[in-house]
Design goal:
Elements (H helix, E strand, L loop, with lengths): L1 H22 L6 E4 L3 E8 L11 H18 L6 H23 L9 E6 L9 H18 L10
Antiparallel strand pairs: 1-2, 2-3
């Protein structure tokens, strides 16, 4: 289940990025759902949601470490909810890591493809960013509620 979810997210992320690069023009918003959702192709050299100003190679290293940690610890998680969250996190991290390793300007400084834009001056993002953010938020809630990472309540 853990790896299946991660693979699904990576595939969904990479397919939608391929479609965005193929069919969208950079920085030209296309309305999808009224003013609530636009597709706007952007290339991000920073962290998730365009945060951070350190060199892209730093995020490549951090993403690699996170992916290895999730691959090491994730299969040992004892509940379905933790396996799902770890799979989502791994899929998101790996989806953006693929871009950092393969896209312009090249290894390890590749720019991440972003294309989903919502209002309120929110940064443009992608499926991997959503998977990372949602899993991080839900993991935080579980930990605050007293759950052990990967296990059951204390």
């Amino acid at each position: 289940m853990f790896l299946g979810i991660a693979i699904f997210i990576v595939l969904a992320d990479q397919v939608t990025k391929f479609l965005a690069v193929t069919y969208l023009k950079p920085y030209e918003p296309i309305p999808v759902f009224f003013d609530l959702l636009h597709f706007t192709l952007a290339f991000n050299s920073k962290a998730a949601f365009s945060l951070g100003a350190v060199g892209t190679w730093v995020f490549t290293i951090l993403s690699s470490l996170a992916a290895f940690a999730l691959l090491w610890f994730g299969p040992g998680f004892r509940t379905k909810s933790w396996l799902v969250l770890a799979g989502c996190a791994l899929g998101g991290v790996t989806g953006n890591l693929v871009d950092r390793l393969t896209r312009y300007p090249g290894f390890p400084n590749g720019h991440v493809v972003d294309f989903i834009q919502i209002p309120f001056n929110f940064p443009v993002f992608n499926i991997a960013d959503m998977a990372i953010s949602i899993s991080a938020a839900l993991i935080s809630i579980k930990v605050i509620r007293g759950e052990r990472i990967g296990g059951k309540h204390d």
